[in-house]
Amino acid sequence: MSKLRSYYSSVKAELGKVIFPIKEQIRSAYLSVFIVVTVITLFLALIDTIMSLTLSSVIN
């Protein structure tokens, strides 16, 4: 029981050291991720379209 109490108190102490992000940091991180994912998606769609058109022209 002593180990459990010691573990709990050390976990509580470590959680006290955690600095949670503020709303602006979360918003900017979300926006950055959204932009990067959108750019990568558009790039892959472009590559897929080019490869599809090339392959269909070779087949026909």
TrEMBL record:
Annotated compartments: Cell membrane; Membrane
GO cellular component annotations of the record: plasma membrane
Membrane topology: Single-pass membrane protein
Cited Pfam families: SecE
Principal subcellular localization: membrane
Domain of life where this protein originates: Bacteria
Keywords in alphabetical order: Cell membrane, Membrane, Protein transport, Translocation, Transmembrane, Transmembrane helix, Transport
GO biological process: intracellular protein transmembrane transport; protein secretion; protein targeting; protein transport by the Sec complex
Entry's transmembrane regions: 29-47
An MF annotation (GO) of this entry: protein transmembrane transporter activity
Record InterPro entries: SecE_bac, SecE_sf, Translocase_SecE/Sec61-g
Subunit details: Component of the Sec protein translocase complex. Heterotrimer consisting of SecY, SecE and SecG subunits. The heterotrimers can form oligomers, although 1 heterotrimer is thought to be able to translocate proteins. Interacts with the ribosome. Interacts with SecDF, and other proteins may be involved. Interacts with SecA.
Family per similarity comment: Belongs to the SecE/SEC61-gamma family.
Function field: Essential subunit of the Sec protein translocation channel SecYEG. Clamps together the 2 halves of SecY. May contact the channel plug during translocation.
Protein name: Protein translocase subunit SecE
Annotated source species: Malaciobacter pacificus
Gene: secE
